What we know:
Elements: E1 3-8, E2 11-16, H1 27-42, E3 48-53, H2 64-68, E4 94-98, E5 101-103, H3 105-112, E6 115-119, E7 123-125, H4 139-147, H5 149-158, E8 161-163, H6 164-169, E9 175-177, H7 182-194, H8 198-211, H9 216-243
Parallel strand pairs: 2-3, 3-4, 4-6, 5-7, 6-9
Antiparallel strand pairs: 1-2, 7-8
Helix pairs in contact: 3-4, 4-5, 8-9
Amino acid sequence: MSVRIEREGPVTTIVLNRPERRNAIDRATAEALADAVRAFEADDEARVAVVSGDSGTFCAGADLKAIADGAPNRFEAEGDAPLGPTRMRPSKPVIAAIEGHAVAGGLELALFCDLRVAAEDAVLGVFCRRWGVPLIDGGTVRLPRIVGLGRALDLILTGRGVDAREAHAMGLVDRVVPSGRAREEAQALAAHIASFPWTCVLSDRASVFDGLDATFEEALRHEFHHGARALSAGAAEGAARFRDGAGRGGRFE
């Protein structure tokens, strides 16, 4: 199986398992990856997903060997992307756990995720630059939104790799952890996020995404409508817990 799914409580971990190809994604793997994300989205018990790679590598991108041998990934304007889920917008958070390389399409898969937890020796970059393979899995769309135009163009035009520390400094990754701990730390982060009142988490997350391409006024209206649903779904209970002493001193309980 090139994609393995593990579940622990509200956390679903989706694991790329093609160590012989450094977890590069061929057509069958892309289909399995898209199906795994759809299954996570449909599972009401699953709150946060973690995307990871086995054997010390996150993902080396599309399987260029398979493409060169006449077995290309799906390449159509509508439906699933060449790497599978990278055109989707799940309604629930997804976290990338990056060990080793997240390069070319592997970087695009990491950008598909809401947050990125990287091992200290991880490397990220648009390595497909040297082979004439374009970013067609959301890289040119998501990267400028995450790190800004100037830094995105630096990575896209030069194809250079950045280590985890530089990636963290530019906002490309959100946490840097010891080597070998990315999946464990990402799963702990996922469980922490999943522990919050869930309607409110989804509401605020949806408001962020809905506001990205809206005017300021439209974004405020999106925020109000999402927030109104969250308030009606349980904010009074949270206020009562605060009144009764929960969370004093900034504690998470």
